[in-house]
Every structure is written in C-alpha cells, then in structure tokens.
Design goal:
Blueprint: H1 6-25, H2 30-37, H3 41-49, H4 56-65, H5 70-74, E1 86-88, E2 93-97, E3 105-111, E4 128-135, E5 137-142, E6 145-150, E7 154-158, E8 163-167, E9 172-178, H6 180-185
Antiparallel strand pairs: 1-2, 2-3, 3-9, 4-7, 4-9, 5-6, 5-8
Helix pairs in contact: 2-3
Length: 192
C-alpha cells in the first residue's frame, strides 16, 4: 500500500465533508442515509468522521444514495474559480462558458431594439434557453404570442417554437443561459 500524501489526505477530508454536507442538505439522519446506502449507521458515522478508510465500492454506493456521481463526490476544487467574460462588443454581449458543463454558456446582453416585426427573422432550433431580465422590459415573441418580461422576471421556453427577443420602452439587459444546441441555433447574430 502506498503512503498517503498531503494531497490525498486533503481529498479524503473533502470527500468526507461532502458526504456529511449532502446528507445534512437532504435533511437525512445518519440512520436514513445508512439505510439508503445499505451500510450500517456506525460504518457511515466512521466514514464521515475519518475513523474508517474510504473504500471505492462504498463511495459508489453513497454517491448513488446521495443522488450524485462518484466524479462529483471526489472532484477537487478548481484553482480558477473566478472567470472573466469574453466580450463581443459588436453584438453588445458578454459570454461566460460554464466550466462544469462546457456545452452551456451564460450570456449578458444589452438590447435597445424591439423584437423584429418580420416573422421570418424569428428563430427556431433544438435546445434549451432561460433568461432573466436584469433591467428594463424585454419582449419575447414566441410563435404568434407576445410576452412582456419585466425586471427580475425570468422566461424559459421551448426553442423549437419560432422566437425573438427585444427591448420595449428603452434599453433592457438580460442574462441568458444557453445549452449547446441553443448556442448553435443563435450563431451568426445576436443571442435573442
């Protein structure tokens, strides 16, 4: 058996803390999680308190019982927690890729124009989109319907319906989340 390094010890401690934190966040007692994971309550207590060696088979079982994955349970904290946006001044956008899911981006956009009045400029595509209005009022055209989205309101909609977004009564700022398919559907222009 190889000796444990300081880095291994830190990971071991982190995993134990995560197990306990996830259990507590679910509102579960030691007994309840032990039952779900099919381990004894004393074994689970010793795992959480560092008095029992972490075994891979038990970690897999605990991850499942906690509704997470082994990868998420043992991932180490990244040093690059803070990121800066990619700025697209031509379209008034700031984009942040999500490190945990590289297919997803967060986009902040300032809009000054109303949505297009020509239905042929509306887009439809696979994917998922969610947006919140940070300031002002946005108008979401969705199929043949029109929705006003005010400051602090959010919209989540099926992107397979033709859609467009614009400002109403002055500039508005939105923060949107786009998955990989939605990003592809908006390439070559504004995100809305």
């Amino acid at each position: 058996m190889l000796p444990m390094t300081q880095e291994d010890g830190e990971l071991d401690s982190l995993v134990r803390k995560r197990i306990r934190a996830l259990r507590v966040a679910q509102g579960w007692s030691l007994e309840e999680l032990a039952g779900r994971a099919r381990v004894s309550q004393s074994t689970l207590s010793r795992i959480e308190n560092g008095q029992r060696r972490l075994a891979l088979d038990q970690l897999v079982t605990l991850a499942r019982a906690l509704d997470t994955t082994l990868d998420q349970l043992v991932e180490t904290a990244a040093d690059d927690v803070v990121t800066s946006p990619v700025i697209d001044a031509a379209h008034g956008l700031m984009r942040w890729p999500m490190k945990s899911d590289p297919g997803v981006i967060v986009v902040r956009q300032r809009m000054t124009n109303p949505p297009p009045d020509n239905p042929s400029r509306m887009r439809a595509h696979p994917g998922k989109e969610w947006l919140v209005v940070l300031s002002g009022t946005a108008v979401l055209l969705l199929g043949n319907r029109r929705f006003r989205v005010e400051t602090n309101q959010a919209a989540e909609f099926p992107t397979m319906l033709p859609h467009a977004i614009g400002a109403e009564g002055g500039p508005c700022e939105t923060l949107g989340i786009f998955d990989h398919d939605a990003r592809r559907g908006h390439r070559g222009g504004d995100e809305g």
